[in-house]
Fold this sequence. Notes:
By secondary structure, this protein is an all-alpha fold. The chain has helices spanning 3-25, 29-36.
Amino acid sequence: MNTRLAATNIRIQQWTAVFKAKAESGLTVDEYCEQNGISRNVNILVR
Length: 47
């Protein structure tokens, strides 16, 4: 596996964990982002 693909896979795993944690939190996107230091400009959580 090349380095680029490995890095992409790691990012996918990290964001998957963020999506799951946000869903389980019961918080709004804004609340979750604020409490977890995620920029609100990362609007991928809205989808």
